[in-house]
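Q: what sequence does this backbone want?
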């Protein structure tokens, strides 16, 4: 699905336009919509990543660089954050400058489905709330597989729909009412938040998404539900 259904441009172009339009409000509204849990999820990604001791890290769909900044706490690591939205990157660069992290993190504009890196370059790739925005999901995951070193890891944080029927009921009630409402009050681009809500609900999750990851070459996928299944962390390995 696309953010702007009445426009003929590609999903990729629409995603770029959408995130450009909400770049300066995104962090605050993300905290509000997730009730601050996005901070906890990033810390979990850091804890998982630290154990892997990566030296070269690519954070795809880095947005305003929150995950990249969290990963900068890993000793002797170098991080590249990549995103299709230049305005989101502008916000991220200001954060990095304010935290004096320019020597550890570099942000570049780029396309997750056409990465400009050599094969087998990175020890770790992270993607936070980005894969559901790919125009071609398998192509994006296959590109991550290509540039990941053998025995490297891919960590994905993405929205998911809870399996428990009672929890699912309240999740859908919140997502279908609160998220569009928050967008209508605090954003000029209401369609962006309607898209974010609908895409979260429709994107494959759990075992369904794990199967897609494996079909792109990854050997194993660990599934770690968060907040009763409202989001999920996937940890995939590339074979030696």
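A:
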């Amino acid at each position: 699905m696309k953010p702007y259904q009445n426009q003929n441009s590609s999903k990729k172009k629409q995603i770029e336009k959408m995130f450009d339009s909400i770049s300066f409000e995104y962090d605050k509204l993300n905290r509000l919509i997730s009730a601050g849990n996005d901070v906890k999820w990033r810390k979990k990604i850091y804890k998982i990543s630290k154990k892997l001791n990566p030296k070269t890290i690519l954070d795809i769909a880095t947005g305003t660089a929150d995950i990249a900044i969290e990963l900068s706490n890993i000793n002797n690591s170098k991080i590249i954050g990549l995103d299709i939205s230049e305005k989101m990157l502008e916000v991220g660069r200001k954060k990095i400058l304010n935290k004096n992290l320019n020597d550890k993190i570099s942000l570049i504009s780029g396309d997750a489905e056409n990465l400009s890196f050599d094969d087998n370059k990175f020890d770790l790739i992270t993607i936070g709330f980005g894969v559901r925005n790919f125009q071609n999901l398998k192509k994006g995951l296959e590109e991550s597989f290509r540039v990941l070193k053998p025995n490297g890891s891919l960590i994905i944080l993405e929205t998911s729909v809870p399996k428990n029927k009672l929890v699912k009921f309240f999740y859908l009630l919140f997502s279908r009412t609160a998220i569009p409402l928050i967008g209508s009050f605090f954003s000029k681009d209401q369609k962006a938040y309607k898209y974010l809500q609908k895409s979260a609900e429709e994107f494959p999750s759990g075992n369904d998404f794990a199967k897609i990851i494996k079909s792109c070459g990854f050997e194993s996928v660990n599934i770690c539900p968060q907040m009763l299944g409202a989001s999920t962390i996937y940890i995939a390995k590339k074979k030696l």
